[in-house]
Amino acid sequence: DTEVTQTPKHLVMGMTNKKSLKCEQHMGHRAMYWYKQKAKKPPELMFVYSYEKLSINESVPSRFSPECPNSSLLNLHLHALQPEDSALYLCASSQVSRGFDNEQFFGPGTRLTVL
Amino acid sequence: LAKTTQPISMDSYEGQEVNITCSHNNIATNDYITWYQQFPSQGPRFIIQGYKTKVTNEVASLFIPADRKSSTLSLPRVSLSDTAVYYCLVGAPINNAGNMLTFGGGTRLMVKP
């Protein structure tokens, strides 16, 4: 199984809502990632988890709260978002620092719209 | 992290070979060069990775000159389904922390019939 799944596919939320994005992989990867991608722009790294611990936070606002409850799951909790946070949120996973072959496997993304 | 520069867009026709060149003048000794492909509303997909000289797999070839300041992704005999954005990335894995991918602007390839 070389698939990363993300739910939901689409999400519309108001600025006062609390919602969560979910990501799951069963490839035994111990590194997992969240990216944000605006329309016609490249993906931007938000968070990196390694062995279920947060290893990199790219100065993301606290209204985005990641969580890695186990080695297969990655969540992104959303609270008090702004309309400019509307984007495609991508999850990815990879082996941890194997050197040459650190291919990242991406999920299809969650299309988030903040009203 | 090394910055990459690619053409914003390219056009080609079915059956042609497409070469996309990426410039990365400040590549570090430990950095690898990786290319990803992205279709609309999908996550990026790994195409190929290399460190030096030439790498070939079932879908593409990657040419890296000796100074490593640039690289060229070669797609043989493209089809309409190769229409996508192609990203060149340069970086190295971080010990025990996965690897950071910093995507550049990407090249929008349009394959025409």
Account of the 3D structure:
The complex is a heterodimer of chains A (115) and B (113). In chain A, strands 2, 4, 5, 6, 9, 10 and 11 form a 7-stranded mixed β-sheet that branches. Chain A is 0% helix and 56% strand. The radius of gyration of chain A is 14 Å and the shape is globular. The mean pLDDT of chain A is 92. Chain A contains no helices and 11 strands. Chain B is globular, with a radius of gyration of 14 Å. Chain B starts with 8 loop residues before the first strand and ends with a strand. Chain B has strands at residues 9-13, 18-23, 32-38, 45-50, 53-56, 61-64, 70-75, 84-91, 107-112. In chain B, the strands form 2 sheets. Chain B has a 5-stranded mixed β-sheet, with no helix packed on it. Chain B has a 4-stranded antiparallel β-sheet with strand order 2-7-6-5, with no helix packed on it.
Features:
heterodimer; A: 115 residues; mainly beta; 7-stranded mixed sheet; 4-stranded antiparallel sheet; globular; B: 113 residues; 5-stranded mixed sheet
Helicity level of chain B: under 10%
The secondary-structure class of chain A comes to mainly beta
Q: Low-confidence segments of chain B, ≥5 residues, pLDDT <50?
A: none
For the report, how would you describe the main beta sheet of chain B? 5 strands, mixed
Strand content of chain B: over 45%
Give, in order, the helices and strands of chain A.
Answer: EEEEEEEEEEE
Counting DSSP E segments of at least 2 residues, the number of strands of chain A comes to 11
| Uncertain residue ranges of chain A | none
* Helix-strand category of chain B: mainly beta
| Main sheet makeup of chain A | 7 strands, mixed
